[in-house]
């Protein structure tokens, strides 16, 4: 059964409409991204209740704010980096969280809420790591081959980005532990944070191994972007940054289901 009365849906729907308008106007989301984000929020509200919208809002607001730090677009980064997030990015970061919320109907709610926390911790750790790493622009290394790569290239890691991802995972873990009404010293907090950090590491590994990378034959520089004279250097053309985000989130969440 849904967790809120049906009468609450009218103000929730009105708020969702304002959310779509505002995020589109501020170029935080594309129009389709805004509608899908609103649908994800209403879905979570229906099954998990209003409190579990808080982690979603925290993720969205913090990620948007960090994204504003990187005003200069890096040539190695994905072409959509720094642009309003579209529906694919919304679904890859929040879709699993919303799907898990449906399980409240059939499974012990505390277990579902724990798994939801893990899913969003992965998304938060990965996004914070990427944005913070690109802001500080420290030496960046291929996660798989451990060779120096341009800042912003998928699969690359830096010290600042790694610390940022860990802080992001811990922040979501702390918030969700409070929502679970757990003492912050309990294993739930560390478990969520560790899972989020592992998801960030897996995301980098998948990015280095499977995401398409392109080489500029003139400069010898690698990039996530394809271009007129670019040649595919590694990875698969069908594997995008969104796909890497989705699969790392799904795999870590699936392992968490098995462990729970």
Explain this structure to me?
There is one protein chain. With 260 residues, the chain is mainly alpha-helical. The chain has one domain (51-84, 108-259). It is built from eight helices and six strands, in the order H-H-H-H-H-E-E-E-H-H-E-E-E-H. The protein has helices at residues 9-25, 31-48, 54-69, 87-102, 109-136, 159-179, 187-209, 241-259, and strands at 140-142, 148-149, 156-157, 213-215, 222-223, 231-234.
Strand % is 5-15%
- What's the total count of β strands? 6
Mean pLDDT: 88
Outline? globular
- Which structural class is indicated by helix and strand composition? mainly alpha
Strands of the widest sheet, in order across it, are 2-1-3
Approximately how much helix is present in the residues? 55-70%
The tally of helices reads 8
Order of helices and strands: HHHHHEEEHHEEEH
Taken together, the total number of domains comes to: 1
Q: Biggest β-sheet, characterized?
A: 3 strands, antiparallel
Radius of gyration: 18 Å
* Distance between the first and last residues' Cα: 23 Å
